[in-house]
Amino acid sequence: MIKIAMVEDDLELADVLTQYLKQFNIEVTNFEEPFLALSTLKVQKFDLIILDLTLPGMDGLDVCKEIVKNFDIPIIISSARSDLTDKVTALQLGADDYLPKPYDPRELEVRIKTILRRFNHSNNSNEEISKKTFELDFDKNEITKNGKYVKLTAAEFEVLGLLIKREGFVISREEIFDNSDLLNQDYDSTGSLAVIINRIRHKIEDNPREPQFLHTIRGMGYKFTQ
């Protein structure tokens, strides 16, 4: 479980991000008040900080400065302040990334894992973040599972590649067809997509009858998780 400390006084946004990140095994503890966040960091371990800049009682840049000074933890600035000076200052102070609001929560999830992989690697850490089970390389038209090449037909690669790329999201049958050069709605009258999904499961799942990665969401489509 990845543990995140969020310093955000917009409680509605904090709740949305908390619920979204939960599905990726990321636990978020939000602090509306920056002084409470700083004191908690002294007694509780977190993997990363998500820090707003506009906060009650203390400017976010000052909070960033205190965190960098006293703790060895990566920081993502999440702020609606669009002043370039704020961004430059935050990065100069030691923040690892700056994400201007509004943004897609999916982008935040990707940035969290990217920063943690880099941070943990540089610190020779073997804690929370590990390489994903499946890796997608569109340039090589290759998908690997635990580093081993998965042998797929062109159509299977097309479908699984899209699902991995949109990991965590439900992808409708229509969207799969719209993004496919090999499949079309008319041809699928024979149930070709269902056949392809079944073949993929037999290649990537330990038990295709109880899939761990490629899920059918009844009435909606398919979802890939790992």
From TrEMBL:
SMART domains: REC, Trans_reg_C. Keywords: DNA-binding, Phosphoprotein, Transcription, Transcription regulation, Two-component regulatory system. One of its GO terms (molecular function) is phosphorelay response regulator activity. The keyword DNA-binding applies. InterPro entries: CheY-like_superfamily, OmpR/PhoB-type_DNA-bd, Sig_transdc_resp-reg_C-effctor, Sig_transdc_resp-reg_receiver, WalR-like, WH-like_DNA-bd_sf. Transmembrane segments: none annotated. SUPFAM superfamilies: C-terminal effector domain of the bipartite response regulators, CheY-like. GO terms for biological process: regulation of DNA-templated transcription. One of its GO terms (cellular component) is protein-DNA complex. This is Two-component system response regulator. It comes from Malaciobacter pacificus.
